[in-house]
Structures are given as C-alpha cells and as structure tokens.
Amino acid sequence: MSRTAPILILTAAAGDGHRSAARSLEKACAALGVPSVLVDALDLAPRWFRLWFQGGYEGLVRHAPSLWGSLYRRSDRPGLFYAIQTGLDLLCLGRMERLIRQIDPDWALCVHSVAQPRLARIRRRLRRPGMAVVITDLHPHRMWLRGEPDRFFVPAARTLELLDKRLPGSGERTQVTGIPIDPECGALPPRAAVRRQLGLAESGRRILVMAGGIGAGPLPDVLRALADLPDPTDLDVVCGRNPHALRACRTAMDRARSASPRITVHGYVPHERFLRHLAAADLIVGKPGGITLSEALALGVPLVVYRPLSIPGQEDDNGAYLDEIGAGAAAGNRQELRDLIQAILGDETRLMTMAAAARAAGRPDAAAAIITAICGADRQGMGRRGPSGSR
Q1: Distance between CA 47 and CA 55 in Å, rounded?
Q2: Of 17, 46, 191, 210, which has the maximum CB count within 10 A?
Q3: pLDDT by residue (tens digit) across 112-132?
Q4: Cis bond leading into 232, ω under 30°?
Q5: Which domains does the chain show, CATH number per domain?
Q6: Rounded to an integer, what distance in angstroms lies between the CA atom of residue 22 and that of residue 111?
Q7: pTM over 0.90
Q8: Per-residue pLDDT tens over the stretch 22-65
Q9: Is the peptide bond before 129 cis (omega within 30 degrees of 0)?
Q10: DSSP H or E stretch at residue 9
Q11: HSE-up of 149 (CA within 13 Å, CB side)?
C-alpha cells in the first residue's frame, strides 16, 4: 500500500494485552508497507502518573482484584470515578500535542483508552488526526467511548451492538475485526508439528495453564487440582512475571512426585514462544484476557476459565462470551475444575466441538483487517479531519 504519513499507534504499559495488540498492529503495518510509529502514551506523562497508572493496575490485580472489579464497574458509568480518571488522563498527557506535530499522522490508533481525552482536545485545535479506537475486550467500557472517535474496531458482533446502544450512531462507523493478535497465529503449523518443534511428545493430551503476563492469582491451586489426572495428560504451567507463583508452582510440582515428570513449570515465556506452547495444547486453563482469548480462538484451542484467576470486570464479560459461543467453560473452585477437565478430556466429541467453535470464531487476520480499513478510510477522505470535516 502506498502511503507517506505514518499511522500513530498509541498504547499503554498497563498489563501485557494492550502492548501485545499494539505490536501486532505494528507488524501488520510493516507487512502491508504502511509506515507506523508505536508510542506508549504513558511515556508522555509525568513519572508519578506512569507509576500510579501502571503500578496501581498491576498492584490491584495481584493483591486486591475485587477492588479492581469494583472500580472497573463504577467507572463504566457517569460519576465521580469516571470524571476523576478522565480529568487525570487529560491533564497528564500534555506532551502529546508536540508528538502529533512532529509525527504528523493521518490517523491515531488508540489501543488503550488513556490517550483519548487529550487526543480529542488536540483534534479540536489542529483538526487532525483521525482517531480510531481498537477495543481489546468484549465489553465496550465507557472509557473507550471518550473523545468522539471517527472509527471503532471491535472484537465481536455483540460488542458492536452494545456499543451502538451506549453511543447511538456509532454502529455506522464500527467494524467487527476481532482483537489484533500476532500474525504468526495464522501461520503456525498443525499441533503435532509444533510439538515436534518444542521437543514434546506428539501423542497424549496437553493442558496449558496460565495467568497472563502478570501471573496473578492462585496458579498453584490449578496445578494441585490437575496434577494427578489420568495418563497421558501433560501440564504446561506458565507463571508470567510472578516469581512467587513460580516458586509455589515448583513446590507443588515437587510434592506431586508421581506426577511431576508430566508437569513443566515456566516463569515468563517470550510471546513468540508462548504462541507455540498455546498451539501445542489441547486445552487451556486460565484467565480470559482479550489477547489470550483471541489467540486461543485463532488456534482453535478451547479455554477453561478458572474464575479465581480471572480479573473481575473485563474478564467476566470475556468469559461469558466464550461460554456463549461454545468455545469455553468455567469453574469456580478446585473440585469443579478437576471435574470439568475430566469431563471434557473424557468426551472426545465435546472437546472437538469446543475446538471447532473456537476456530470458527477466531480472527487471526484482525490486525491486517484494521490497517487495511484505516488505509481505505484515507481514500474516502476520513483521515485528516474525521468524517464530518469539523474536528
């Protein structure tokens, strides 16, 4: 695609999902020959705001998830929490205008909502760039609606429908693309070949247990619940950036001496390699973050949600979507989890049906679809001043 002005991709280092989606969009731009600039919006803020925003999120998710869930729900409606967050986002990203003037993009893609209030003010003054919002969870939280975006890209039809109810008229400028994931998801070989690449046995069941990059939640409980599943079932446990979970899982593995040869415990795994661990699995047990969910669907791997691992709020809605499309199930405690996994693995038809449902809902080309749509909007004259020409 011929293009001179870059696309500005704005993300934020709060959890791993937004950054992963932004990098996937950057890769799609490169593959399509579209210039792009990827910026962490928090780099434009004072240090205290970055530490508060990033550290506060990860701290709440790790140590007070129910409080995070309450804040998430309260900020999803007009009121004090919404107003405070919007005011801080607007106040603390004052350096963004200089960035916009330097890069001079036709479009800014917001892969995290933090940039939207300040970007809206800049657009009113400069009458550019176009603003597109890439929603990275199934629920269109009110934070995503700020700033009069020109375009929305959403994970699923249910997201579009709810967005149009919350922001009447937005359906006309919304496209269902899926959440942007690494294009490699669409290029990985079949499961048996991936297992050979990883040096794993090609036969037998394999379960990937994970809790996202942060690694929050009771991962050792999952390991204890599943450690003595009937042979041949291998457990692949990824603890993320959580040394405490890594130590606890290794201790639990050592205690399950008879089962330990079938259990592998990792700390943080680079994303490219993690995709191979995911593709090698028959089933995932973990939390339904937007990126993990989308990667699992693209690879046709069903996801069993262990609710104590999930982040209250956005992941409640993500898990409900998995259940709705038949690509997942959920358990609330160790016994429920064990019974559910045994039931799924003991029913080949059920497992295959869930895998087929996942694959049918997968959108491995979401990132390319978004960039292609943005370039198409340019040809329609929507880039510089937005669809109305008045911003």
Answers
A1: 11
A2: 210
A3: 999 999 999 999 999 999 999
A4: yes
A5: 7-181+365-379 (3.40.50.2000), 184-361 (3.40.50.2000)
A6: 6
A7: yes
A8: 999 999 999 999 999 999 999 999 999 999 998 888 889 888 99
A9: yes
A10: strand 7-11
A11: 32
